[in-house]
Specification:
56% helix; 252 residues; 9 helices; 4 strands; Dehydroquinate synthase-like, alpha domain; mainly alpha
């Protein structure tokens, strides 16, 4: 039997669920996040109205905005072949670069809010190509510590970028050129760190109350997370544990 039409009106600019075919459920017993994919999850249509996002606090605006940026970034870096998704991803990154800080600082800026909604939808469209270790780490950390997904993505992002550097440097250099960022990969990394600071995203997971006590569990969960398959580097459980520790203690 057919399900009722799904009409989405997003009130945050981050996940992009309004254009996605997935749903995420957290198992509260195992603290593991599971992703459900089905064509009928796809909304029949979406309404992107910036007026619905002006009441979002600055902290959540920043966190959800970094979720959108992570979607675009990981879609770009995923090794799977999908040139159209890469084009969408890199333009989504530009919209975040030019509008996220504005939306954080001036919540009633409808142009910035509207552009962030578009960037969010573009990120979710692009990540059909694949995600990566930013998400495969943020999922277990979020489930185990009840931490905000977008905040986790923003914190974890530069650590994963550095770990993936050899595999993604050419793509990041292309992205940096498109975004008007000088200095190639290093310049892009400086931009990410500067945007995080400007938007109030912490530098390390310890800043939001996450410790190193469950790194073994985090690493095992990250390795089997669906997002792992889209990462340019096939991290082992041991490598995930080392990377997760860097994210917690701030060893960049």
């Amino acid at each position: 039997s057919k399900i009722s039409p799904n009409i989405c009106i997003p009130t945050t600019a981050g996940t992009g669920s309004e254009v996605g075919r997935a749903a995420v459920i957290t198992n509260t017993r195992t603290h593991e996040k599971k992703i459900i994919f089905h064509p009928d999850v796809m909304p029949k249509f979406a309404v992107l109205d910036p007026e619905t996002t002006v009441g979002l606090p600055a902290k959540l605006t920043a966190a959800t905005g970094f979720d959108a940026f992570a979607h675009c970034l990981e879609a770009l870096c995923s090794p799977f072949y999908h040139p159209a998704a890469e084009g969408i991803a890199i333009e989504g990154m530009r919209l975040v670069k030019e509008n996220l800080a504005k939306a954080v600082k001036k919540g009633k800026d409808l142009d910035a809010r509207g552009n962030m909604l578009v960037a969010s939808s573009m990120g979710a469209t692009a990540f059909q190509k694949g995600l990566g270790a930013i998400h495969s780490l943020s999922h277990p950390f979020g489930g185990l510590y009840n931490a905000h997904h977008g905040t986790l993505n923003g914190i974890i992002m530069p650590y994963v970028l550095k770990a993936n550097r050899k595999k993604v440097e050419a793509k990041i250099e292309r992205a940096a050129a498109y975004l008007g960022i000088k200095g190639g990969f290093n310049g892009f990394m400086k931009f990410v760190l500067a945007l995080r600071k400007e938007c109030g995203i912490p530098h390390k997971l310890a800043d939001i109350g996450i410790d190193t006590k469950q790194l073994d569990t985090v690493a095992e969960m990250a390795r089997r997370d669906p997002s792992h398959g889209g990462n340019p580097v096939d991290f082992s459980v041991k490598q995930y544990k080392a990377l997760a520790k860097k994210c917690v203690v701030g060893d960049l």
